[in-house]
Amino acid sequence: MLDDPRAARAAFRAGTAASTSGWADGYAQANLVALPREHAYDMLLFAQRNPKPCPLLEVTDAGAWHTRTADADLRTDLPRYRVWRGGELVDEPTDVRAHWRPDLVTFLIGCSFSFEAALVEAGIGLRHVEEGVTVPMYRTNRPCAPAGAFSGPLVVTMRPVRADLVAAAVTATARVPQVHGAPVHIGSPESLGVVLEKPDYGDPVTVRDGEVPVFWACGVTPQAALAASGVPFAITHAPGHMFITDIRESALRTG
Amino acid sequence: MLDDPRAARAAFRAGTAASTSGWADGYAQANLVALPREHAYDMLLFAQRNPKPCPLLEVTDAGAWHTRTADADLRTDLPRYRVWRGGELVDEPTDVRAHWRPDLVTFLIGCSFSFEAALVEAGIGLRHVEEGVTVPMYRTNRPCAPAGAFSGPLVVTMRPVRADLVAAAVTATARVPQVHGAPVHIGSPESLGVVLEKPDYGDPVTVRDGEVPVFWACGVTPQAALAASGVPFAITHAPGHMFITDIRESALRTG
Fold first, then answer.
1. Tally of domains in chain A
2. What's the Cα-to-Cα distance from B162 to each of A139, B124, B131, rounded to whole Å?
3. Cβ contacts (< 8 Å) between B49 and chain A: which residues?
4. Nearest CB to B44: which of A48, A174, A255?
5. Pairing of strands A243-248, A153-162
6. Looking at the structure, do residues A107 and A11 belong to the same domain, yes or no?
7. Digit-coded pLDDT (tens) for A16-57
8. Model pLDDT for residues B21-59, shown as the tens digit of each residue
9. ipTM score of the complex?
């Protein structure tokens, strides 16, 4: 793991294909979705209508592989990508220059890696980190506001929080609206259509006595909508293999 | 003036053509921009890249004249509209049903009428209201981030604030990010390229000894970019003749 975002991206550009969790501590990481221009309007509208699961950090001009968020090449500087055709995963390369097209618009979407730093600073432990697993994610019974080709359920992450710390978890994450912001639901998993022991993505974690399950909007939401849309072509990051920006996490905080 | 938003919209639908300042106190008002779908992507991208002057409350589906923000008809329920062809103002009707097209996408953009309520609640007087004039607006030397056909300077409003209340003005408006949020510039008009006595829109106001000029991003910004773009067709509200929503202003506040 490298602490300097520029050095981290250089390592990924040179072929290192690791999860970015723990890399470049203090710098914001982003989800990447690249779509043909003809489908980009629907994605932009989907993000506008569903800002909690889809907090946009940047939307590039068509064909551009540079970004205002870092001195980087978006085609090479992520550790691993996924290439999609008609909703099917067709390749997981570490470089997408061969797949790039001049009509691709890239969306950089806030990632909960940044948001978890705010929780830890507020004194709230992360159970999935303690247990060495991936955060549990659930497809809820709450539909997103549809936009053109894109629709689907709100996907959430869950972190157990001690009852006396739930308010602190709310205020700490409310201050990072560009990385999902305040929880969308606290307690009562059944009214969200969720069974805690059975996440749809990631792994279940222990919820101890005196703890409440707290649910935040998740960046998997737009990816699930994308996969279901049947859009003919898209490139995304591979799960956990995010784009590391030069934006300090502290710069994303409001108030 | 009517206090109920539904009654206010019914009056406008019946032909009343008044400025909405002071109507439906406590309910959010919105700027309206309707554009053909082929130009809507650039406007949506312009708003994403310039969220302070262009805080989106809603973007409709093409052709839709209903809105999630109110039980209303967007073609009839504003007191007055402007119709634009090739950047030229061609009509100022009180009803745009005859101009409506099935490809029009409507943008509802937060309006400073709501934002001023937060200032008044914080004990900060509004000089332009005291002096009975329109708030002064200035084209600054700060360019917006361009997006396709749309580019131009950031336009700001200015309100003089007593030096000991400037911090309160910041915190009060930081809590309403969907209506322009915190100031973009405080003091030093010259470094913004602004001469206080010579606003580009609206009227000059008195700045007293012990007061500091405080500048907020202004919803005229996207309208100026629209007028300069040469887009072949657009409909907007007429200045001061806003769309009154059913959204309580308090619902737009964070924290």
1. 2
2. 51, 8, 16
3. 59
4. A48
5. unpaired
6. yes
7. 998 898 889 889 999 999 999 999 999 999 999 999 999 999
8. 888 988 999 999 999 999 999 999 999 999 999 999 999
9. 0.78
